[in-house]
Specification:
Layout (H helix, E strand, L loop, with lengths): L1 H19 L3 E7 L4 E6 L1 H7 L3 H7 L5 E3 L6 H11 L1 E9 L5 E13 L2 E10 L1 H38 L3 E3 L5 E4 L1 H7 L3 H4 L14 H12 L4 E8 L5 E8 L3
Antiparallel strand pairs: 1-2, 1-6, 3-4, 4-5, 5-6, 7-8, 9-10
């Protein structure tokens, strides 16, 4: 008895679900020379303000516009016939000229020799607004990042122009050396990169000094002092050093 009751009420239940859906539902009969809309749910009437008769009078092209790179409706139908199902994007224009961007999932269904296009259109206004905000935020952050990079390059150029600069990894291996360092030490950049900083260490420098240096920078503190270094030709030079752990 319960199964029979459900079968008797199935059409009513399904119709209720479709009409109360937030999505816009269209069922079109695809004919050779035209497309006739056979069914719209209540959401279509509510959002677009058109009746079924009015929609058929103006035609789908009367209230649909392609969104972005989407195709015109006749091209969309041609592709749908070929693929049988697809996702499309469009703008639906209501009777009072409100534009609603939608994502449309369309599917071809054939029944008793008749071809139908069942199209479910979901309002994506919030998604598009979010994507616009995200894009604008990315543009803004990229601009700020480029400005920061430009500023840092300016700082580096100023330092390179006036100071001797090297960058080492936590093991003391040189990963960057500016021109001033190469000129003073006598080493070419290709000779110095990848080598330990001790390559310029002078034997006169007491080991206690280096012990203090490493204890300071491994504690994430800045070390300042004077160092006696050795050039490639074994000549010595003294530098006033600031080591900043990053």
């Amino acid at each position: 008895m319960q199964i029979k009751d459900f079968k008797d009420n199935r059409e009513f239940l399904l119709s209720s679900i479709l009409n109360k859906s937030e999505d816009l539902l269209f069922i079109l009969e695809i004919q050779e020379n035209k497309n006739c809309v056979k069914y719209i749910n209540e959401t279509v009437s509510k959002k677009l303000k058109y009746t079924l008769d009015e929609i058929n009078e103006i035609g789908i092209e009367g209230f649909r516009k392609p969104l972005g790179d989407a195709k015109e409706f006749f091209e969309h139908i041609g592709e749908l016939k070929e693929k049988k199902s697809l996702t499309d994007y469009a703008i639906l224009v209501s009777k009072d000229k409100e534009e609603i961007p939608v994502e449309v999932n369309a599917k071809i269904i054939e029944k008793n020799g008749i071809t139908y296009n069942v199209a479910v259109a979901r309002d994506i206004t919030h998604r598009i607004n979010y994507e616009k905000e995200l894009h604008n935020d990315i543009v803004k952050k990229t601009k700020e990042l480029n400005q920061s990079i430009s500023t840092l390059r300016g700082y580096q150029e100023a330092i390179d122009e006036n100071s001797i600069l090297t960058i080492s990894n936590p093991k003391g291996i040189i990963t960057y050396a500016n021109d001033n360092f190469c000129k003073l030490s006598g080493y070419g950049r290709e000779e110095i990169l990848g080598k330990p900083h001790s390559i310029v260490r002078h034997e006169d420098t007491p080991s206690e000094l280096f012990k203090d240096l490493w204890q300071t920078i491994t504690s994430k503190k800045v070390w300042r002092g004077k160092l006696k270094n050795k050039k490639k030709n074994s000549d010595s030079y003294i530098v006033d050093v600031v080591i900043v752990p990053i």
